[in-house]
Every structure is written in structure tokens, then in C-alpha cells.
Amino acid sequence: MKTAAEIWPVIKLNLVNLLGFELCYRFFTLPLYLQIIDRGLKFSLKASGYSYVTAANLAGFLLKPGTWLVLAAVSIVGLFFLAVENGSLLTAFQGTVYLQKVSPYEMLIGGIQKTADECRKKSWKLFLVLAGKYVLENLFMLYRILSHVKPVNFVMEELFHTAYGLPMLLAGVSGLLAGLFPGIFLLYFAMVEQKSFSDSWWYSKQLVKRGGRRAFGILLAGNAALIVVIISLYLVAVTGSAVAITLFVKRDLQLAVLTGTAGRIELVVLLIYSMLNSILNVGIITVVYYQLQDRELEQNVWNFKGKLLGKGYQKKLLAAGAAFGLLSGFFIFDLAYNGSQAVSDAFLTIQITAHRGSSKAAPENTMAAVKAAVEELADFVELDVQESLDGVLVLCHDMSLERLAGVSRNVTELTFEELSRLDVGSSFSEAFAGENIPGLREVMEFAKGQINLNLELKDLGTSASLPEKTVALIQELGMEEQCVISSVKMEYLERVKALNPDIRTGYIVAAAYGNYYTNKNLDFISIRSSFATKELVKRAHEAGKAIHVWTVNSVAELEQMKQAGVDNIITDYPVRAREICFREEATENLLEYLQMVFR
Question: Which residues participate in catalysis according to the annotation?
Fold first, then answer.
């Protein structure tokens, strides 16, 4: 079939510029879009009265007016970005038809102009078609991404495990395909030939009658081939990473590192897939469209050896790229360095917290323990916060210094200078002799951009200014997204919320008595693991609260907490917890094989 043979030359002519455009466009739009989603999610959660979205409260959350408002805003921005991208790709392939090289800058300008024209024509139906087209073309990618997003992944899992779930899903996809396929050439007639939506739909239907089967067959084969290539790329990347991890990472950390690495590789590979998928589908539609429009082109293979355009618009392209890069770089830096609790809550099924730092690897509540927690890939580190005699925030669990330092004095009776001279490492191991009690500021400055903090405020009495000082320090360092505050003293949490409602707070309870789930000053409940039943987790989730459990160390209890559906596991063994909670048989078997090979 000539059509299939001509697709690659059509794409190849502008391939470098197409990839350059996609990279620049995604680099700009994805961080910006994530920021919009992040802020929208926070707004809708606050408006709905929830702290977290869970499977139990998903329906109630979606019915809230604030949620609908945010969904509408996010959808409008997303459709605009999608329209500009499709318009830009159409511009590139227009140039291909005339044997022209089209720069990424020219693509972008063409895409913006085409989108602006559709907005002026009020072609809102075209944007809906674009949304449906995106879903159909990216079913594989959407499935993989949504399988990592809670509570959507739970809904999907339940759907696939019911007798009618999969048939209903297939029927929905088939219905969407049947409804949209007659408009497969809609974008060319609307955006390129500038026809109205109704006329564009009619002309597209006529072309589909002439060559719809051909277009469908090539699109299906092309997308299937791309998925095979992408899966192969993923497997090669994971295998290569596993080899490197086996050779250069400590054995006890290898599985945890590989699990995290495989997840990041998948996201990168899916991004590559999305870019190639967009280029491939527009390229296929271009070939079929022009061949069906002009029978002569169908009979002759196109000649791509004509004169190409020069390197125009380089200065403008560099200026635009620099501006986009700076803005996007800021968003990427903000997300990476300051983090986002909303994004983390959505993408991590269970979060792992190192108890008092990694307290089996280093002395508890010390800088060494915090550094060990980072090395062991914990999501959070739980730390105990007190005040010294001179009002400095310090880390220490016990009120008395007897157990750790052999000193019969309380933390609050010594100045920070006196505390910093105490040796709290020798009682753990001679290897840590001289390890001192750190100030909270020092620890937070180290943790910023590396690990989240669960700051447990010890009960120093009502008159203590511990909540106010902790909030002030969090705000000074800009770590609102990286810190949560927990305490056994409800008054402290209420004072934290009064100062900064955006800082998440958790009430520490030793038993499952009382109903704390509706308290607006609480975002999560921190409870002894033996009381964390599925029913308790369900009640908390229905109220939009998360459940943190402590202190979970055995394999059996870790498995139990995973099955109960808790949100955060506080443990002395973060590596073990990650291996249990994120175990994947494929990566585990691969690692075991490589360990045997390189032994």
C-alpha cells in the first residue's frame, strides 16, 4: 500500500524540527499545567472541606461546586494547550506537502493562529472533538498514568474485577470511536481550510466514505507498532538500570532503588510515547487526507528532494525559547525543590515515613538519622520537636536526656549551646560518638528539596510557643509543601491552623476511640497500627482524612497495613517498607537474576 510507504518520508522531512517543537512545547506546558492542577486541587479540597481525595469520598468530592469549577478551568486550559499543539503539527505537515522545512517557532505561531481562529469562530464543538481524539489516541498512556493516581486506580481496579466492568469500558471506547471517526479529517478542514465546524464535519465524512478503512487500518497498525517500540524501550531502560544498580548500589537498597527508578523510567518513556504518538497520528492523517483530496498524489510517490527553506527566525526562536525555558524552569524548580503534597498524595499509593529518622541505621532524631532516611528513599522523616531553655527549636523525643546522653536533666533546662555539646551518638554505637542534638533549622535546611518532614510537637504545656515558632520557621524557609505537623496536643494543632491553614496537621492517638474525622483542624490521624482496621480507614477516608500508622516494622504487619489501605506507614525500616508496599514481581525477579549473574 503506497500510503503506508509514504508516511515515513512525510514525517522524516521535518522530524528534527517536530521533535524540537514537541520537547520545547512539553517543557513549557507540562510544568505550567501541573501547577494549575496542583493549585486547583488545593482550592477544590479546601472548598469541599476535605484534606484528601480517597476512593471513599471521591463521589462526594466530584459533586461539590468548587470541584466542578476547578475541573472546568483545568479542562479549558488543557484543551487550549491541545489545540495549539495540534495546530502546530498541522502547520508543520502543511509545510511538508510543499517540501518546506518548518521551524519550531513557525509551528508554534501557526498553532496559536489556528487556535485563535477557532476561538473567533466559537467552534467549541471542535475542542470537544479534540478531547475525544486525545483520549482515543492516548488510551495506553492514560491507562498507565491513571493506574498510578489514587483514588482513580482503586476505581479502575474495581471496574476491571467486575463481570461487567471491562465490557462496559470496551463499549464506551467503541462508542467514542464510532462517534468521532467520521470527523477524522475535521482539523484539516477547520484549521487549515478555515471552514465552519458543520461544513468541516460534512467534508470529513465524505472523505471517510472514500478511504475510512484505509485510514483506520494504518492508524491502528501505526499506533500498535509504536506501543511495541515504547514497551521495548521501557524494558531495555529498566534492564540497564537494574544492571547499574546491581553493580553500584548496596545490596540491601537495590530492590527499593530499582522500584523507584522503574517508576521514573515509565514516566519518561510515556512522555516520549506521547510526543511520538502526536507526530505519528497527524502524519498519517496528513498522508491520507492529501491522497484522498488529490488522486494524482495517490498514484505518484512524493518527491522530497526539492529545495528546502533556510534557517530563518533563529533569533526569534531563541528569544521565545529562552522566555519559555525560564518560566518553565521556575515551575520545575518549584515543584522539585519545594514539592507538592497534593501531587504526592495523588501519585503515591502509600507513603513511607522514617521513624525519628532512620533510627535503626543511626541515632534517633539526629542529622545522621535524617541523612540515612534520605539514602533509604523514605518519603517523610518523622522528628520530635522541643524547645531549649533559650527558646531554640531542637530535636529530641524524651523530655529527659538520661537515655540518650546519660544526663539527668530535661531538654528545656539546657540552652541550645549546652545541648549541642552533648553526645547522643555513643549510646547507639561507637561509630556515632560525638553525634549531637541538632537544631530544627539546621535539619530543615538540609531536608529542603530532599525529603518531607513530619514534625511532632511534644507537649510542653499551653504556655509554650512551640506551635508559633515551628510555623514561623516553616514559612521562613518556604517549606509549607514539605512539612506536616503532628501532636498529641489538639490545642497545638488548632494554633497551627489559625496561623497557617495550608500547613497539614495530624492528631496522634494511641487508640481508636472518639470521632476525630470531622474536625476541620485535622488533615490526618496518626494512630497505633494495631488499631488501623479497614473499617477505621474507610471512615477516615469518607471524611477526607488520611491515616498514618506507627510504628510498623514486621513484614506481616507491613502487608496488613498495605491491605488496610492506610496512607502513610511510619517505620524504623523504610527500605523494607518500600519493598513490601511497592513490590513488583517482574522487577524483583530481574534483580534476583542479575544478583546471581554478578555475584
Answer: 355, 397
